[in-house]
Amino acid sequence: MTLSTTGPTRPVPFHKVLIANRGEIACRVIRTLRQMGIASVAIHHPVEVRARHVREADEAVEITGETPVAAHLDIAQIIAAARATRADAIHPGYGFLSENARFARAVAEAGLVFIGPDADSIALMGDKISARQFAAEHGVPVAPSVMPTQDLAEFTRRATEIGFPLLIKAAAGGGGKGMSIVRSAEELEGAARLAASEAQRYFGDGRVYAEVFVERPRHIEVQVFGDGKGGAIHLFERECSVQRRFQKIIEEAPAANLPAALRDEICASAVRLAAASNYRNAGTVEYILGADGRFFFLEMNTRLQVEHPVTEMITGLDLVRLQIEIAAGHGLPVRQDEVTTNGHAIECRICAEDPERDFLPETGTILHLDIPQAPHLRFENALDRGQRVTADFDPMLAKLVAHGPDRAGATRASIAALHELALLGVKTNIDYLGRVLGHPAFSAGDLHTGFVVQHRAELAAPEPDAGTADQALIAAALGIREFRDLAFGVPEPHASIGLWRN
Length: 502
Fold this sequence. Notes:
The chain is an alpha+beta fold. It has an 8-stranded antiparallel sheet with strand order 14-13-10-11-12-15-22-20, with helices on both faces. A 5-stranded parallel sheet has the order 3-2-1-4-5, sandwiched between helices. The radius of gyration is 24 Å and the shape is globular.
């Protein structure tokens, strides 16, 4: 699917952009930079020297650290790489330093352009408590909650007054870390201590807070863009309710079975928040939505989201291009009334993990990769045959995105593509995702963040009989060229004789 803006491409002053990231998102940004005629710079740890994002970039700089992740978090090294290659700007992608206010500030102080929001916006929204308070002050609904205090007994008393169940969350966190559900006063103190310990370990900030837990909530988020001067628009919403361990595995746009009036209210709320904060560039406002139609502010992600392709698929807009144009000072790319949608899109996160073992990460070597091809499909990845999948980075390997005329069509296209996708050498969740999409509750749009837990038994992998397993292995082997050549190739000297008979 071709992505574009609604008007002619606007010239930008950037000649070269360094991408402070890796893998599929780095390849995604490189693709748009190339289309815009802008050179790209990749960074890589020594273990990634042959990675696809390194090969596809116009230039590459090696960075070092005690671990690959530590290297990608080294602000001084990254800015030095940008200066050494004479880059004009830095695109942070998502993850790593993308929501680090100190990094955004350091980029600006180095005389470079950060392709994202300013440091103050990142700081405001990065702290979940200050973000909640700001949202409440500007008329965005927030769930009843208890703010952190050094007095654990007082925290427990206030939380008990709100009532159960409660959700304990890290003030500075995300991704499900430092989070737990508490259903009684007896559990509260222990859960708060455990959450604080985990928050300190992951984020260096042990503050936690409690808010009312909405049973069977849906996770709805709104893509917004701001001009940094109080102007903001939305690109409609995404549904991200299918999750495992508080982390998304399937996202779609638009949300399933969402009444038009409620959609308008949620989207308007997100725009109001972005405008009030003078937000600049791309961001996502996330909400929980109860069965009663009440929605509450969850957080704002001050970056491009993993699931941004589903918004691109239904709007036809290139979100990375819009980020770059706004960073170049062009302001909002389109008016709100110019943003339209077409059809439905679903994204499946392909992860190296074992769904039968509580989604534990897996490692291995990619022996074979066969990607389905069709105009309505996108396979966002940076994979190569022979690539080692290690525990150095996040287990997400790729994203399969399908577009259809409606939700049923997008679902069918996604299932068909998952069946055609072959990735051998490391265990993945590909088959599991197919079972989720084929579940009657998913088809009906009966979604909530506990979907995976509720339907665990039905989503479990069936035990194949020996014959089926053998057929699957044979079919997979026949898809590998080296195996076919070894098994069926005519050996010398007979091959040189040509056609002959006994």
